[in-house]
Each structure stands twice: as C-alpha cells, then as structure tokens.
Amino acid sequence: MPPDDVELRRVFGHFATGVAVVTAQSGEGRAGVTVNSFSSLSLKPPLVLFSLTRSLRSLPVFLEAGRIGINILAAGQRDISHRFATMGADKWADTPLSVGPHGAILIDDALAHLECERHEAVDGGDHVILICRVLDVRANPGDPLMFYRGGYLPESGGRGGSTLGRSADRVTRARS
Ligand SMILES: Cc1cc2nc3c(=O)[nH]c(=O)nc-3n(C[C@H](O)[C@H](O)[C@H](O)COP(=O)(O)O)c2cc1C
Fold it and tell me: Bridge partners of 116?
C-alpha cells in the first residue's frame, strides 16, 4: 500500500532546506509566497525551479507574471517567512521592499536575490513546477533561515544544532 499523506509529509520533511519568498506581479495583482521547494536547476542556460500547490490563491499571478523575484531568506527573517506563508494575511504591510533592475519585487535584507523570468510551467501532480530563467543575482553576507521536520532553524534563542529535529521551532504549514 502506498504511504499516506501524513507519512509522506513527515518523511519528506527530513530533507533540510532553505526558505525563500517568491514574488510576482501581473494584471491580477501582486503575489508573494514562502516556499522551500526552490532549487537550482541549470547553469547553461541559468535555470531555477520551485513548485506551487494548485490550490494557491496567487497561482494565476505566477503563471502570468513577466518577472519573478526569489528572495532567499536570512536567519533573522522568520517573521517574513511566516507572513508570506499565511493565507489571507496582508503579506505586504510592513515588508520592506524594492524593485530590482529587471523589475522583480525584492525583499530587503534577504540573504540572496534572484531576478527571473518564467521559462516553463510543468505538471507536478498536485503542484505546478515553475522553471525560471535567471536574469540577475545578488548575494549578501549572513546565515540562512532553514526548514527541517516542520520547524525553523536556527531555533529561537540561538542554541546549537545538537537538538536538530527534536526542538526546531515548529510551524503550522499552510500548504495543502
Ligand atoms: C517553510 C514553508 C515552506 C513552504 N513551501 C511551499 C512551497 O514550496 N510551495 C507551496 O505551494 N507552498 C509552500 N508553503 C505554503 C505557502 O507559503 C502558503 O500556502 C501560501 O503563502 C498561501 O498563499 P495564498 O494566500 O496565495 O494561497 C510553504 C510554507 C512554509 C511555512
């Protein structure tokens, strides 16, 4: 029998990732979503990917946008990750932003910024895989925010990695 959704999610969560907020703007408005499905894909051409659940309210914006911003979050940006993962929240209030040279929406103080254009949208089961061509990149000094087994690292209070997986700050995932 195939594993059920709860078990799949639990086991998938053992793969530690960074956290990014992807942004887009189209005629339908502005969208920003926390993702941990971001991955580099190709150097020539320069491609990256992330996947968005089909139930995401802002999916149409990403499918139409001319420019997509990828903001790789720094360790101190847990609040921004939480804000952009909360359905129905005013994700943009109090979020310090700028527009990059290629027109993508960028979040201040991120660990790295990528400005992209959509390359291809590919079927990924209950998700859509967005493959994007990278137009410009910038990295800043600092440490990454990470996600592991349903919680953020580093933990609040800055304790070390010896408790990984047992006491990482838990979050309730808004993903379907
Ligand atoms: C750490 C973390 C990683 C997430 N990664 C993804 C992801 O890769 N793809 C996705 O569709 N949703 C992901 N989510 C959930 C979305 O952020 C959330 O459903 C979304 O912001 C809701 O947006 P909406 O208001 O446009 O529907 C993640 C949430 C968290 C906390």
Answer: 68, 134
The pTM of the full predicted model, rounded to 2 decimals, is 0.92
Å from CA of 33 to ligand 1 middle: 6
CA of 32 to the centre of ligand 1 (A): 9
Give per-residue pLDDT as tens, 66-119.
999 999 999 999 999 999 999 877 899 889 999 999 999 999 999 999 999 999
Q: What's the distance, Cα to Cα, between the start and end of the chain in Å?
A: 22
- For residue 6, the SS3 value is helix
Q: How far apart are CA 8 and CA 108, in angstroms?
A: 34
User: What domains sit in the chain, N to C, each tagged with a CATH number?
Assistant: 5-170 (2.30.110.10)
Atom of ligand 1 nearest to the CA of 35: 5
